[in-house]
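@channel sequence for tomorrow's demo:
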Amino acid sequence: EVSTDDPETAFCTLANREELNPEEGSIHHCLYQFTRNETLTETNKLLCDVCTQRRCGPKNNIKSEKKYVYTNAKKQMLISLAPPVLTLHLKRFQHAGFNLRKVNRHIKFPEVIDLAPFCTAKCKNVAEGNTKVLYSLYGVVEHSGTMRSGHYTAYVKMRAMNNHLSDLVLRGQSQALETEPVKGQWFHISDTHVHPVSVSKVLSSQAYLLFYERLL
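C-alpha cells (generated this afternoon):
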C-alpha cells in the first residue's frame, strides 16, 4: 500500500540529493542508486484502484482481471524512520552465466555518513528543521576468498558508551548534538587474533557489512 498526506512532497528528501554528486564506487553512490526515482511503465505499470473504480465500479464487481486499469507511475524508496543503528549490506556477488562470481571491488565508505539525502522530507524521528542525519562508523565485516570458500574477519571500534544512542533506542528520541566520529580505538579481529589498527586501514577494507550508530 502506498500512501502520502501530500503528493507534492512524496518525492522530497531532507537534503537536496541533486547536490550530492556521489563518486562512483562509493557507499554514497550505492545509496543514491538504491533510492533513485524510477518510472513504472509497460509491464511494470501500477494497478490503479481509482481508475479501475471509475471504469468498472467497486472492485468486488469486477469478474475479470482484464478489467483492472494499470497506469504509469513513479516509485522511489526513501527512509521514513532513521534507525538507531544503521546496517548496510553490500551485494558482493554477480551472475556470470549460470554461476555466481564474487565482487572484490573496493567500495569507499566514510567514518561519518549523512543519510539526509536518502530520507523522506517528513522523516518521523528527525527534529523539524534538521537537514542532517549523521551516523558514525563502529564496525565492519570483511570477507576474503571466493563464493565457495573464504574467511570472515571484523573491524570493531572500542569506544565509550553513546548515551544519545541509548536514549534513541530506549525512548525513541535523542537530544544528540554530536557531529564528529565517536572517539575510540579500532581493532582487527580474526578468530582468536585481535590487534589494534589505524582508521585508514579500516577504511581501505573490502567491506561486506557496515555498522553505523546514530549521532544526530
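heads up for whoever presents: The domain at 79-214 is CATH 3.90.70.10 (Cathepsin B; Chain A).
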